[in-house]
Amino acid sequence: MKFIEDSRIRIGRKNFALAWLYYTIYLLIIMGLSYILGTKPYVFGLPRWVAIGNIIVPVFFVLLLILVVEKLLPDISLTEDEDLEKKE
């Protein structure tokens, strides 16, 4: 007996990996900017790394996330196909 994997599971695993990759890139950029920018110059009355790392970079990544979700993540049905056939 061969196990037939639901295609939604494959898509879910791909989306999970993409989410972790996105989060890892976000953290690396935040940590890199915090290390590179230092604490002396000020932006908005805050140390530069705080202003850029906690205000500007998250805004950029939220906008980027909207594009990623719209373009890369497929819309999948969360109900089983059998349920849909019974209702019709």
* Helical proportion, percent range: over 70%
Q: Please count the beta strands (DSSP E, at least 2 residues each).
A: 2
Instruction: Name the overall outline.
Output: elongated
Major beta sheet summary: 2 strands, antiparallel
**Nearest-angstrom radius of gyration?**
21 Å
Please count the helical segments.
Answer: 3
Mean pLDDT: 81
**SSE string:** HEEHH
**Alpha-beta classification:** mainly alpha
Low-confidence stretches: none
Strand content: under 5%
Through-space gap between termini: 31 Å
Order of the strands making up the biggest sheet: 1-2
Give a structural overview:
The protein has 88 residues and is mainly alpha-helical. It has a domain at 13-73. Helix content is 72%, strand content 5%. The protein has helices at 7-37, 48-72, 81-87; strands at residues 42-43, 46-47. A two-stranded antiparallel sheet has the order 1-2. A hairpin with a 2-residue loop joins β1 (42-43) and β2. α1 packs antiparallel against α2 (48-72). The longest helix has 31 residues, at 7-37. The chain is elongated, with a radius of gyration of 21 Å. The model has no long low-confidence stretch (mean pLDDT 81).
What characteristics describe this protein?
mainly alpha, 72% helix, 88 residues, 2 strands, elongated, two-stranded antiparallel ribbon
In short:
With 88 residues, the protein is mostly helical. The chain has helices at residues 7-37, 48-72, 81-87; strands at 42-43, 46-47.
